[in-house]
Amino acid sequence: MYRELDNLLSGDTTEDAWYDDGCIIASEILLEFSQKDWEELAGETLTKPIEWQKKLAYCMDSNCNVYEFGILLSLLSIEAEELFVICIDTLRSFTTLENKQMLLNDPSILHRINEILPKASIPVKKILEDFLVKIDS
C-alpha cells in the first residue's frame, strides 16, 4: 500500500484535482495501511519533496493514529511555512489528552506559531488560533 500512496503523492496533478479527488484517494489508502506500510512511510517521509510532504500532511487525519501523529510531528521540523500550517491544520483533529500534552510540551511548535501569527492571512490565523484553543482545552 505504501508504494500506491507514494505513486499517488508523486503524481503531477493540478491543485484542483488533488483537493477534489487525490486527497480522498490518499485517505482511503491510508485506512488500509499495515504496520509495515506505516513504518516505511515514516522512514521515507523526510526524504520526499516538499509538495509530496504537503499532500501527505493534508490527508493524514483519517485514522488520527500514533503513526500519523508521529509523521506530522516530524514534518513540523521542516523549515517550510506552508507545510507547517498544513500540519497544524491536520493536527487539530488529534484531540486525545496525550496528543495535546505532547504538543504543549514542545516549545518549538508554539514559538513557530507565535512567529507566524502576526503576519498570517486571516484563514491561516484562524487555523493557528483554533489549534491553540484545541490543545489548551
User: What structural class do the secondary elements suggest?
Assistant: mainly alpha
Shape assignment: globular
Computed CA radius of gyration, to the nearest angstrom:
15 Å
CATH names the topology as: Leucine-rich Repeat Variant
CATH architecture: Alpha Horseshoe
Overall mean confidence score, pLDDT: 91
Q: Give helix and strand order, one letter per element, not per position.
A: HHHHHHHHH
Q: Helix tally?
A: 9
How many DSSP E strands? Answer: 0
- The helical percent reads over 70%
Distance between the termini: 36 Å
Task: Assess the beta-strand content as a share of residues.
Answer: under 5%
Question: What's the structural domain tally?
Answer: 1
Question: Which residues sit in consecutive blocks of at least 5 with pLDDT less than 50?
Answer: none
**CATH class term:** Mainly Alpha
Can you tell me about this structure?
This protein has helices at residues 2-10, 15-31, 35-44, 50-58, 66-75, 81-91, 97-104, 107-116, 122-136. It has 137 residues and is an all-alpha fold. It has one domain (2-136): Leucine-rich Repeat Variant (Alpha Horseshoe). Helix 4 (50-58) runs parallel beside helix 6 (81-91). It is globular and about 40 Å long.
Write the layout of secondary structure elements.
Elements (H helix, E strand, L loop, with lengths): L1 H9 L4 H17 L3 H10 L5 H9 L7 H10 L5 H11 L5 H8 L2 H10 L5 H15 L1
Helix pairs in contact: 1-2, 3-5, 4-6, 5-6, 6-9
Q: Descriptors for this entry?
A:
single chain, 137 residues, mainly alpha, Leucine-rich Repeat Variant, 9 helices
Would you summarize the structure shown here?
The chain has 137 residues and is mostly helical. 72% of the residues lie in helices and 0% in strands. It has one domain (2-136): Leucine-rich Repeat Variant (Alpha Horseshoe).
